[in-house]
Design goal:
Length: 142
């Protein structure tokens, strides 16, 4: 099994659909990294990950909005295609097992974090849970 973990911001509000009696929540996560080129100039690279979260627990959908910072974990899939101009392109997709909200759009201190996950066993997606981040994490001994 290959596991992919992504931390990034949603590019647009999520879309929930029902396919063959099962719910799927689709959303896009952008992960950006800044790096220095060999010439010494700073550049930024953004990778978009298309996510599909198959779950019966759809309570997270109102929180998956444009700009929301999230942690997403699941199994990656890659597809190659030709763009309209004939150039080759690729899409990175993620079949989500866990989504964790990482604060609000403003990233204010003390913002709550919630985690939603689903486990799959013989085609069933039955387990989903929500956790709230401990606001007292500031009392570290160092």
């Amino acid at each position: 099994m290959i596991k992919l973990q992504v931390i990034g911001r949603l590019g647009k509000d999520c879309v929930m659909k029902e396919i063959n009696g099962k719910n799927v929540i689709n959303f896009s996560v952008a992960h950006s990294e800044k790096f220095k080129t060999s010439a010494g100039s700073m550049q930024e690279k953004t990778i978009w990950v298309e996510c599909a979260y198959w779950t019966d627990r759809t309570g997270i959908t109102p929180y998956l909005t444009k700009g929301q910072l999230v942690f997403v974990e699941g199994s990656p899939e890659a597809d190659a295609y030709k763009k309209q101009d004939g150039e080759p392109g690729a899409t990175l997709r993620l079949r989500v097992r866990e989504v964790q909200l990482l604060g609000g759009k403003s990233d204010s201190p003390g913002a709550s974090s919630e985690s939603y996950s689903s486990s799959q066993g013989a085609g069933n997606q039955t387990v989903a849970q929500a956790e709230e981040r401990d606001a007292g994490a500031d009392d570290l001994p160092f």
